Amino acid sequence: MRHLTLEELLSLQDGGQLADLSRHLEDCPLCAGELRSLQQRRQALRDLPVLQPSKDRWPAIRARIVASKRRRAAVFAAALAAAVIAFALFSPAILRPPAPAVDNSADEVAELVRQSQRLEEQLRSLPEPEVLDMGSAETIVQLEDQIALVDECIEDLAGDSGAGQELAVLWETRITLLESLTNMRSPAFAQLLR
Fold first, then answer.
1. CA distance 186 to 129
2. Residue 118's pLDDT is what?
């Protein structure tokens, strides 16, 4: 005797009226028992409690990340402003009598831009670190954020012809940050982490 397949049993359970299948169920206690078992499983599944997804935490996490980046940017901007002011106040050029009106800041800025470009090329040639501890990863992110902030400041001053010294300080700061980032991404540093 051929028994009903699972598909046929499910069809019957779903209300399908197939006369020969129904007759088989009357004559076969094994198939009738299997149909009852399917009905019990279906009922057990229906009786499971409805679970609601937990509250979405991503908006709160994202808000904390954004706030942290803003705080870091504000601290860096304040430190950068203090450095520019300190440079302006304590620069040896200010303490000496004024030199003849020769503007070397454009040449100085051009050399700093070249140094920055060389460092960026060096940084691009370095492989991405395979493994970083949390502190190193955070430091790299902070350095990248600070470089982006310096870039914004440079862009703001780029059109100002009287901002040669400020631009030089910003480019020097950018070079220092790039050097730090290059050191963090260097293979020698990665070896220290292993």
1. 8
2. 92
What residues contact residue 64 under an 8 Å CB cut-off, 6+ apart?
Answer: none
Contact yes or no for 127/157 (Cβ under 8 A): no
The closest of 56, 14, 63, 64 to 35, measured between CA atoms, is 14
pLDDT in tens, 122-145: 888 888 777 667 777 777 788 888
**HSE-CB of 56 using CA atoms within 13 angstroms:** 4
Amino acid 86: pLDDT: 62
108-to-21, 114, 115, 166, 178 alpha-carbon distances in Å: 93, 10, 11, 11, 18
CA separation for the pair 136, 139 (Å, rounded): 5
- Report long-range pairs for 22-30 (Cβ below 8 Å, ≥24 apart): 28/1, 28/3, 28/4, 30/3
**What pTM was computed for the model?**
0.46
17-26, 66-75, 184-193, range with greatest mean pLDDT: 66-75
Return the structure tokens found at 90.
């304590």
Greatest Cα-to-Cα distance within the chain, rounded to the nearest angstrom: 116
**If 0-12 CB within 10 Å is exposed, 13-18 middle and 19+ buried, where does residue 61 land?**
exposed
